[in-house]
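Work Package 3 (structural annotation) set out to generate three-dimensional models for the target panel prioritized at the project kickoff. During this period the team completed the workflow that converts sequence records into discrete structure tokens, so that structures can be stored uniformly alongside our sequence database. As a representative example, we reproduce one entry of 347 residues exactly as it appears in the project archive.
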Amino acid sequence: MPSKTMKITTAAAALAFGLLAAQPAHAADNSSEDKQAFSFGVIGDIPYGAAEIAKFPARIQDINADSALKFVAHVGDIKSGSSVCSDEYFSYIRTQFDTFTHPLVYTPGDNEWVDCHRTNNGAYNPLERLEKVREVFFNEPGKTLGATMPVKSQESLGLPEDVRFTQNRVSFSVLNIQGSNNSLMPWTGLGKTAATPEQLAEVEHRTDAVLAQIRETFADAERRNDRAVVLMTQADMFDPSLLAAASANPETMSGFREIVQTIIEETNGFDAAVYLINGDSHVFAENQPLAEGSPWLDIYGQPSADNLQRITVDGSNNATNYVRFTVAGNSADGAGVLSWEKVPFSQ
């Protein structure tokens, strides 16, 4: 395991966790707070390209060596957007996922199905690729990949990839929200210039399921008096590289509008911390994209949600680390619930 981490926590979180971070992960402690604290790792947009595919088994072993982790999440894009979406590649990644010794929660990214219409991806029908992704990676709904951890899934709605679970009064909700404007961009590789009826039906059904799970997540968190809600998605709904285009034409982000609205409503009605963890844009970021004065409020036509903290994990060429999140023991709340640090891979 790497010997050095790059600390990127806030000052408040660092103060709350200074004692815990100074101890070895395996150290015994009689404090119930420390016993109930835990960590989880997040990766996304990995592996991209032949060199990273070759390193992927070693990346997994680095994460496996982190005994502090309770589980790991992959927030989508298991391949680059210019590579073939083949059955053989999906099977290879599933084989690698099976080597995780921690429970692995995975949400599909647009590169493995939405963008598969592209000629250099194989000119597949994206809906057929989505079904193949579900067949390969979600053949046992309600269970994680890697080590088994039970999760509540939307299998009954045909979305086994949408899952939620709770750890020490922190509610986690993993949602299939896609880049490419939540899969509304035309399938140009198949000769389409506008979204097809089948495409629109899939987006509507999946988005309705996502909205329902967000509301259920917050309702259950409120009922349990949870200390925080953590949402995880592939899509970066606040991608800084798209800000100029979205400001000029907000319709380029129309596929996310209802989702953002619901997140704002639920965040503002929840009297505890809310975190959004995503991949997609490849560059690590930590910010509050819906705080008062944010340009995204005009783009989405929504009021602010100052309590939402967003973290984007590194991906693509920047995927040289995983992000280790640490959840404090029960006495911590507010900004002290969650802290995070980048942990470099060993090669």
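Confidence is low (pLDDT under 50) at residues 1-33.
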